[in-house]
Amino acid sequence: MARNPATVGVTIDQESRTLTLAGEAPGATFVDIADSRGVSYALGVRVAYIAGTIAPYVSIQLTGDPASADYVRKRVMAAVIQAAQLRPNAQVVLSRSDVAIPGDLSQDDTLDLDVPVLIQGDAYFDANGTTHVHVANIAAPRISPRSLMVSDYPERLTENGVLFTSVLQHDAPSRFLYFHYNPPGQPDRRIVLRASNHSAEPAIVQFIAGLGGPSPNEMEAGHDATKRFLVHVVQNEGRLITVGAHQSFNILAQDLPAGQILSELLQLRVLSGGSIHLALFAQNASDDPNAPLAQTDLLTSTVRHARGIYDIPEFHYATQWDLTGPYLTLPIGQIPLPNTLKGEALAGDYGVLEAFVVNVQNPLPTPQSIAIYENPRGGHATGTYIIDGVLVQSHQVPPFSRYKVRQYVVPSKGFVRITIVTMPEGGSSYPLDLIFAPDDGSVAPGAPGSPIY
Predict the structure, then answer these.
(1) How many whole angstroms separate alpha carbon 68 and alpha carbon 104?
(2) pLDDT at 17
(3) Sign of the C-alpha dihedral, residues 401, 406, 410, 416?
(4) Quick one: 256 and 320 in the same domain?
(5) Which residues contact 147 (CB under 8 A, 6 or more apart)?
(6) Above 90 in pLDDT, residue 106?
(7) 362 and 273 belong to one structural domain
(8) Is residue 383 part of a domain?
């Protein structure tokens, strides 16, 4: 018999000499077994739920020209974890080595793989299984945004509610930057970006995303978001989601613990269907991210920061520099953008992509060594640059410092064509100058003593 019948029920069939146990409630107990000879045994029994249910199949649509193996792996892992159904406090155990991606995935190619999944929790039995994942890289043109949406107000969260709303029109792609801080002493929160389709037909949305944080360091959060976003934009690496007619879909739902900062950069467009209504809101981490919004009024604060829509999401420059002339200075983040809504101007051009093409000419009869230097003008700053297709990053540097980010040798009577893509980073103090000048012999990029890596 069971010592605790509330935990396990016991049925004995003397004829077949079988013992059947039925779990009644989670817990542990013993079942005492004895025969007519007086031989007895105490059988330990534990009753628990399975930690969760593993999805048998997941299908992913993404973009990329091509989609790198690392990006495909991240998307596969995220999809498998999201598709699993977990008991409270259970978690999916999934490592990068469990997801074998053979290489970059070209446009119009597909990939099928089986991913081993383990779900664990202290109070549960483990769930082991496999999710079959089908990945399709859909050929989609690059997104050319018409506007920049910014949510940085209230930057410091002291209550839950709506942070930003806008409509994503079919013919008007947009970039979206948000930057929010959950102070110490506040409840752990979650930031959710919800897409709602109010039309009678489904809509397909393409988006590219770069997440920074959560982190206690605002410069780290802004730098990570910018770095990831620029890398994905250059490769056109993004996702395709379908928002059903009169339905909503959470594009992102990100935890924001107390004392942490979250920064995100996205590029979005509607590929087919009607307009999509976007709502960014803060809620407690314990709340259901799919619950309807209790109220739609925007949160406010006494400390003003940028929140609005700005008409210039990108600057493109083409110029040339004769290295025998004055130094060439490329200003980054120096033009405050007016807000098309009622609100603050966007000082520092945060979220604005700035692209440069520079032809460096050498009229001299001998090769000349030159360098590109970064020179922060507003305060401490980090930097992310894609120079000639190479990712170049800068740790935090003080204002008015000068460090090399790239070196070149320009051939005699020749030229070098240099391309640069960058963006002012949230949490840093912009503006910043990039200066083209002769090599001054200072520490090389990436060498000991250099902040460049």
Answers:
(1) 4
(2) 81
(3) negative
(4) no
(5) 172, 174, 175, 309, 310, 311, 313, 340
(6) yes
(7) no
(8) yes
Beta-carbon neighbour count of residue 78 at 10 Å? 13
Does the pLDDT at position 231 exceed 80?
yes
52, 126 contact by CB (below 8 A): no
The Cβ of residue 27 has, within 10 Å, a number of other Cβ atoms equal to 15
Nearest one of 74, 29, 26, 80 to 58, comparing CA atoms: 80
Quick one: pLDDT band at residue 36, thresholds 50, 70, 90? Answer: confident
Same domain as 320, residue 255:
no
Backbone angles phi, psi at 218, to 5 degrees: -65, -35
Number of structural domains in the chain:
4
pTM of the model: 0.87
Residues 266 and 401 in one domain: no
At residue 364, the pLDDT reads 97
The whole domain housing 394 covers 314-438
Condensed to tens digits (0 to 9), the pLDDT of residues 342-373 reads 777 788 899 999 999 999 999 999 999 999 99
Give the CATH number of the domain where residue 127 resides: 2.60.40
Tokens describing residue 37: 């000879």
Question: What's the pLDDT score for residue 407?
Answer: 97
pLDDT at 376 over 90: yes
One domain for residues 336 and 427 = yes
For position 146, what pLDDT does the model report? Answer: 94
Dist. CA 118–CA 108, nearest whole Å: 31
CB 396 within 8 A of CB 381: yes
CA distance 105 to 135: 9
In the predicted model, is pLDDT for residue 78 greater than 90? yes
